[in-house]
Amino acid sequence: MATQKQKPLNCSPDLQFLLIVFMVVSSSLATSSSAATEAEALLNWKSSLDNTSLSLLSSWVGDNSSTCNWVGISCNNFGSINHINLTGSGLRGTLHTLSFSTFPNLISLNLSHNAFFGTIPPSLGSLSSLEILDLSQNNINGSIPDDFVMLGNLSILSFRKNQISGQIPQEMYKLSSLRVIDISINNITGSIPASIGNLSNLIVLDLHKNALSGSIPSSIGNLTRLKVLYLMYNQLSGAIPNEVGQLKFLTDLGLVNNKLNGTIPLGINNLVYLKNFWSSNNSLSGSIPGDICSGGLLEIFTVQNNQLTGPIPRSLRNCTSLTRLRLERNQLSGNISEELGIYPKLNYIDLSYNRLYGELSENWGKCQNLQGLKLSNNRISGRIPHLEGSELHVLDLSSNGLIGSIPKELGKLSSLFNLSLADNRLSGSVPLEIGMLSNLQYLNLGANNLTGLIPEQLDGCRKLLSLNLSRNRFRESIPLEMGSIQSLEILDLSHNLLMNRIPAQLGGLQKLEALNLSHNELLGSIPSSFDNMLSLTVVDISYNQLEGPLPNNKAFQEAPVGALGNNKGLCGNATGLNACPSITRGGKKSNKSTIFIIVLVLGIVVFVFVVVGVLYMICHTREPQNENQFEVWSLDGLLVYEDIVEATESFNSKHCVGVGGTASVYKAQLQTGRIVAVKKLHTLQDSGGEAILKAFESEIRTLAEIRHRNILKLYGFCAHPRHPLLLYEFIEGGSLENILTDENYASNFGWMERVNVVKDVANALSYMHHDCSRPIVHRDISSKNILLDLEYGAYVSDFGTARLLKPNASNWTTFAGTFGYSAPELAYTVEPNEKCDVYSFGVVALEVIVGKHPGDLISYFLSLSSTSTAQGLQLKDVLDQRLLPPNNQAAEKVIAVANLAFACLRTSPQSRPTMHQVSQELLF
Length: 924
Ligand SMILES: *[C@@H]1O[C@H](CO)[C@@H](O)[C@H](O)[C@H]1NC(C)=O
Ligand SMILES: *[C@@H]1O[C@H](CO)[C@@H](O)[C@H](O)[C@H]1NC(C)=O
Ligand SMILES: *[C@@H]1O[C@H](CO)[C@@H](O)[C@H](O)[C@H]1NC(C)=O
Ligand SMILES: *[C@@H]1O[C@H](CO)[C@@H](O)[C@H](O)[C@H]1NC(C)=O
Ligand SMILES: *[C@@H]1O[C@H](CO)[C@@H](O)[C@H](O)[C@H]1NC(C)=O
Ligand SMILES: *[C@@H]1O[C@H](CO)[C@@H](O)[C@H](O)[C@H]1NC(C)=O
Ligand SMILES: *[C@@H]1O[C@H](CO)[C@@H](O)[C@H](O)[C@H]1NC(C)=O
Known about the structure:
Number of strands: 47
Membrane topology: Single-pass type I membrane protein
Subcellular location: Cell membrane; Membrane; Secreted, Cell wall
Shape: flat
EC number: 2.7.11.1
Family: Belongs to the polygalacturonase-inhibiting protein family.
Bound molecules: 2-acetamido-2-deoxy-beta-D-glucopyranose
Organism: Rosa chinensis (China rose)
Largest sheet: 21 strands, mixed
Strand content: 15-25%
Helix content: 10-25%
Structural class: alpha/beta
């Protein structure tokens, strides 16, 4: 037709007119017939998709409306489809039902952010005009088909975030128009083909997070237009090819987490546009190239966890563009006072665990944007310089050779949240100004030569979680003001010269989990206020002059011998101690003194190191070495999400420790070594789970702050769009339900242990109902969400999250709990309150002693409960028959549990006891 068009000059006007008519008619006939087949192909495909997809494509209908007006479709001037953009449309199905050969004019195909599954159809290769192909963020698997290399015009290719496996096709180099390749976050194996060097138009090559092995081909140096090269998180080995230095436009080079060895090639010095260089967690050796900042554009340089030696290069000294510098955990040496300058943009610098020496410069204080400065574990000497004016959040100078006193100007660093000066040779007293650091969460001044009193002003640090003042020479009393640092979870005052009595106010530290007062000169008895420290789990009070009864607190009563030993005269029901003289029954003096003698006679093996070790580990894991570790709140949670994905190998079933109707639970060891239970909510995916989580964010935050030894710690949640996650403490053991249904476990689960489990659950519920700023109702107590550790300690899980975990309940306010555990009044759609929990607790308590869900027995028991003697007899017949009947002492307690359970099961909520009353009753 093009030739016809040029010729009509010698035709008569009429003929010309006819020709034009002919041309218009024939061309419109041609396009409308191809448009019809395109429409047909799309409709066929639509009909193969999942039901929910259909409503999203409601504009795709087979009447006379033009395909070009359909959602996501656009056409060229001839009415033929040239762009398909269905990104983020919630579509689910495969690509095999789409007839690709029907779209000869298609230029771009964007199906990203959907739920397409299955393999990539080879017929995709027939899209001969295709320039842009984006299938990122789907669930596509299988390998990249060979026919794929027929897409000769392809310029941008993204398969990011799928489950594509197999190798990179050898013939990929034929796609010579490619400018962007993004196959990141898949499961590609094999090596990077050397022929990739032929893709001379490539600007972006992103292969990160795959399983690529072998070495980086030197032909990569032929990609002279490359700006971005991401190869991190693979298993690449060998050296970084020196040819990288030929990539003269390179701005971003990511090699993190591979097995690369050899030196960082000197060619890097030539990369004048280089902005970001990430190469941590490899085995690189040799020194850092001297001219790494030659272009003056370098912003991020991270090479931590390698074996680099030599000095920090001079080029970094005036590299004023730097924002982030991480050189920690290498073997770098040199004088730190000479190597570094003023960096106006620097935000975070970590030089820890090297062999740097010299003194700290005041220049650090002049880095206006510096938030993190970490220099621990080097050989730095001299005094701490004035750093006022900086925005520091984290200052870690621990394990060096610093001398002199702590400058009072540190009190002006009002953003500080982590300050560690531990393990130096600092002397003098702690400046009172430290108490002005109202954002401080971690303060470690341990292992220095500090003297004087512990400043009472420390109570100004209202957010303090961990305070370590151990191994110094602090004198006099523990200030009673310390009892008002309500946030405190870890307190270590050991190895000082502290005297006098322990202030009763310390007992008010409701969140305290670990307390070490050992190796001091403390006197008198332990205040009875310690009875109420419900979170306390680890204590060490050894090597003091303490006497009198141990507090009525599990942490003390179950402490190992070494943690209580070498005192003047402690007594109580704990290993290695003598029982206390019964004062209430009119204790006689003579009695007391014999008790003291017996106590002194006991030879005590000292397990202090064990306890100190445990404390150290707790403190250590809390240092945010990987910052953001538990900042699971907010959208920044992505970082942690990736960490979890890695730890669970993308939620691989081998890490799965439990699957329920609403969530799967995975055991994940994070990079810090901490083991957490990750609850992945699977039902939320289709019902706006992210939105639900967001809606409850403040509530979850509250829950995450709660610390009670019988409540499973919730660390936070991750409102990730695909998999909303809740992160919990990991308990080695199983659910109460599992233990009771397993014959082996159940027959070893003795009567006293069972009674204690009931007590633990009662304590947890009482705490949540009565001791929090406002009552928190569980809503779904059942044997499924009570976890037992290996010593049968009980942990109530999923507190307050029942609404999240069971979104199917039509209306949250009338949420019905688990069948068989929910209170009868819930049938009348009452808002669940504490009394509903009390009822469910009653069911669980009976379940524990009966050995299975009591079912119909509940009403049977209720009919008996008027005559308690008869009950004692008949109860015996329904107790768990897998155990011998309880002996006298245990029988009493089992009956008490049963009686309380009956009370809790009363039909009228008003006549049920409160959990506070229940837990008091169980204090036998
Ligand atoms: C594709 O569609 C999305 C949302 O409908 C839009 O934000 C995006 O700009 C489109 N992309 C192109 C290349 O048209
Ligand atoms: C990745 O591929 C390997 C080998 O093909 C396979 O063993 C592994 O399970 C895959 N991993 C995932 C997460 O698909
Ligand atoms: C890189 O390009 C040069 C010249 O264009 C060529 O001689 C060499 O073989 C290429 N190297 C590789 C590994 O492709
Ligand atoms: C690097 O590792 C390879 C094995 O992957 C080994 O053969 C080579 O000797 C190593 N090179 C250096 C410099 O350590
Ligand atoms: C760094 O200082 C050296 C001289 O000391 C100078 O040659 C170089 O240009 C400076 N670089 C930048 C980025 O300022
Ligand atoms: C601690 O300080 C005292 C003086 O206050 C000094 O005698 C002692 O040697 C110092 N100890 C250490 C380990 O620096
Ligand atoms: C002492 O504790 C043990 C176990 O912790 C317990 O069996 C025993 O009954 C307790 N004795 C007294 C008098 O409380």
